[in-house]
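Quarterly update from the structural biology core.
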Amino acid sequence: MSFFWRAHTVTVLVIMLAVLFYVALFEEQRHSFDYNTKRGLVACIFVFLMFGVTQTPDGPFIRPHPVVWRLVLCVSVLYEIALIFILFQDVDDARQLLRHVDPSLGRPLPDKDYGGNCLIYDPEVPEDPFHNFKDKMDGFVTTHFFGWWLKTLILRDYWLCMVLSIMFEVLEYTLEHQLPNFSECWWDHWIMDALLCNGLGIYLGMRTCEYLSMKPYRWSGMWNIPTYKGKLWRIALQFSPYSWTDFDWRPTDSLKRWLAMLAFIAMFLLAELGTFYLKFILWIPPPHFLCLGRLVFFLVAGGVAMRETFEFLDNPKCKKFGQQAWIISAIIVTEVLIVLKFDWETVTKPFPPHVALFWILGALAILIWTIWHFYVKRLWNWHVKRIIRDKKRLSNGPVDVYATRVRANKTKKQ
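Predicted structure, tokenized:
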């Protein structure tokens, strides 16, 4: 298996240069600016990817092969570069730029409102009284379920998954005056999404984490397995984790950890909201491969970033923020900047008074709890311990300071 694990840097370099040699000297030239520009950009991307998968350092994951995760890192860098390029355009140019990826893009999208008539059983339509329920059973139902199953495998913590799931539903309520897509019926929010799809996905994800945590990890080389069935099974297991690390985030252990978790939750929710705002602003239909590809990318790259983030918070010896976590943070912030620049009018629509009051009270509650838990409570506990310690001293009788010093001097002379 040594051939499988080698980087093959020289081989990749020779193949790349051979292809460039053929294009430069033997391929027939085409006098088309658009064709040559697109081919040149694709060639630049492939050269960068080949350099990255052979030269960049390995990340925390090694299955199925470290080259997969080096490729994910390089794709992350390319995606961030593309976002920065889009950031320097105006909204119309950005929309038309996407037509080079797919000519069907660049057209306004019809708004779909999931609210409206929220009757589960509509007696006014006897031929199909459950039409409201059926209309909302679209592809997002399975996306919610499998998405939260995979997100739970990434987060590996029940309370954190539930907080993020509920917070996103609250954000949908909060922002439905900005995006019509967020307007849903109450039972769509809390029963179909939070309870059934998200809840079942989180439960199944935690059960999967428990299985992977208890599973013994004893690996042997494929050539040491005598049977063909065993070799095939070993190849299949190559796509499973090499080992498993449980995440104990412990958000209230210290003020630094608590603030880090608040920042992490905010970044996670911004990434979730970016899915809806970007497709709304750039006119990308939900079933389009760009939307689905972004979701898959965030799941794959987010798994590495989450492992690096946990290592950075939990390991005192780790002083460097992980490379994948670094680039994912940059991607999320860049997406937010694109949304703010391209559709400032939508983002700055004033919140309804009750929504603004809810978030003000929520922010005050978090601030008050933070001060109480990390300052007032700890100061009070320190004061109580000091009183108990003083009482124990008094119960043992007065301390003879002179006798104590005499005994100490005798001990030094001996």
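The two ends are 68 Å apart (CA to CA).
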